[in-house]
Structures are given as C-alpha cells and as structure tokens.
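Researcher: We're teaching a course module on how sequence relates to structure. For the next exercise, students receive a sequence and then see the predicted structure as tokens, so they can try to spot secondary structure elements on their own. Here is the exercise chain.
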Amino acid sequence: MKLNTVILDDDKPALELVKGYCKDSKLVNVVETFDNPLEFINASTSLDFDLCLLDVNLPLIDGLTIAKIIKGTPFIFVTAAKNRLDEALEVSPIDIVAKPVKQERLNLALEKTFSLVLAKRNIWENEYYKFFHLTKEDSVISLCSSDILFVESEKANPRNKVITIKNGQRHTLKGYTFEELQEFSPSLIKISKTECVSVKAVDIVEKNVMLLKGIEENGKPKQVALTRFCKKEIYNSMT
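Model: And here is the predicted structure for the students to work with:
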C-alpha cells in the first residue's frame, strides 16, 4: 500500500527536490505535481489522492486556503514561511517540514502520515493488511482483509488456496488453511469443504443458489450452490 500523493509548490526547484525524495520513498506514490494553485484546484476534483504536500506561500491562493479547500484530505506543509507557522498550525496539518527540505525530515513526516491514515482506515473499515506467500516463484502479496471475495482449494494441491479479490484478480496462496484465511478476513464463510465466500460478495440468494458480485465466469456473475452446510450462517450474516 502507498499513499497517492500530489505536490503543490510554485518554487520549481523545491518541487522537483520533494518529488525526487517521494520517489525514493516506499510509502507514497506521486500522482501529479502543480506549480499553480488554480490549476491544482481545477484538477483536484478528478484526482484520486490520499495526501497533499504544499507550500504556505503560493501566488493567487495561499496554502492555508488550499488546505481548507481539500478539507478531509491529509496534508503536509513544506515551507520556508517561518513567520506564518502559527497560522499554518491553525489549519491542522499532519506536519510542517521546513525548507530547505532534508530527505530524512520529509521521511519522518511521510511515516507519520502513513501511520495515521492506515490507523484511520482500520478504525473506519475494520480492515488490516498482511503478507501472504504465493506459489508462483515463492513471491509474496500484500492483501487487505476485505479484498478477498472467494476462496477455493487448488485442485492439484488442496493445501494451497486460490483466492479471487475485488479487482477480479486470482492468486494462489501457498499452504494456507481456510481457518487461517477466515481469521484474517472474518467476512469469509465456508460454504463447502473446498470453498469460502465473503458475505460482501453475495448479491442474490435464491433457494439453493447464490449469485456473487465482483466475480464473473464466462462473462456472467459467478453462481455457487447454497447448501444446508452454510445456508443458516449466510442468512444470519446478511441480516
């Protein structure tokens, strides 16, 4: 997981320096940079970003006003305006990094923001992340607890589990039990000896059949049998 980040600074050398530091970071991904606050405002409604790095002193519209416009989105001031620190603190930035920017100081601010954003997401969504081993070349993948929609045992080796996640991708996890996956993602319900489904993926329930959302087979929503083994648990979870 990385925080999608935008940078706003009319000081182009400083902007490029901060951009370079961010590219070296494992916590953020720079999606766009701006040296004009009006261009940023016009673009911000269509940009998907988790964090904004901006200066306090900007032409036309200062950073304090920008901070109020993007209210609700975490931001860090990167500024040389020492005479405006009291004003800057009043709009509640995550941190204030002084210019000239040092990479170590910026990294501390990014780490602080990452921890706060992740903690807030955990509280709001009751989600967390974990690394799982894949069978392919012994690589690993980071998964969010709510991303797993469907799990089935691998036919060649039932100890491995084939998962379908929210974006429709499938991955084969190496040597995990259904119980371990259910502990990680409590929304998973075992519907047979070889399958688990997330309650969040259940779209339509008809007698002995469930239609799943977010999972397709041959261009149609995936359909699974609703057996007595899981029927009661599914209904209890959906009510």
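Model: If you want an answer key for the exercise: The CA atoms of residues 205 and 235 lie 9 Å apart. The domain at 129-238 is CATH 2.40.50.1020 (OB fold (Dihydrolipoamide Acetyltransferase, E2P)).
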